[in-house]
Design a protein that fits this description.
With 158 residues, this protein is mostly helical. The chain has 8 helices and no strands. The longest helix has 17 residues. The C terminus is likely disordered.
Length: 158
Amino acid sequence: HLEPFAFAANTTQSDAAHLDVVIITLGNLYHIFSNPSFDQTIHNGVIKSLEKHWCSADQDIFILVLVFNPYIQCSCFHPNSPFWLIGGLWPIFKKCFIQFFNGNPNPACRNSFSDYIAGVGIWSYESMCLEDLIQSTSHKTVCDNHCCSIIEQTEGNM
């Protein structure tokens, strides 16, 4: 039962641990310990702790770091989630923008953010050359580096 925690600690404490890695790692722990085969006491304790800390976290910034990872964007959210649409994401973006820059984003910023969410114009997969970046790395995708490898390395330890 401790191996997923050790892996999570090592992953989140590495020099390469960006916020998207942290939230994906925590989500992976939630996924692992949601397995009904775990002892109910362990399951309840871990899930309760993760939910408690998620409720006290700055959820908006964690949501946005996933959205701003061009390999993840909105794909990690449930299809019915408001975070698939600009209407659900814009208030979060605007709130964080004001916190970081002490001012409101201008209309051009909103248009660019909308284009990014829609994956059009300069924000399309092709325009961002994401396929080229995938091919130029030794790993399949950046998502594999951060997300899939975390899941693969912990799945066998449930």
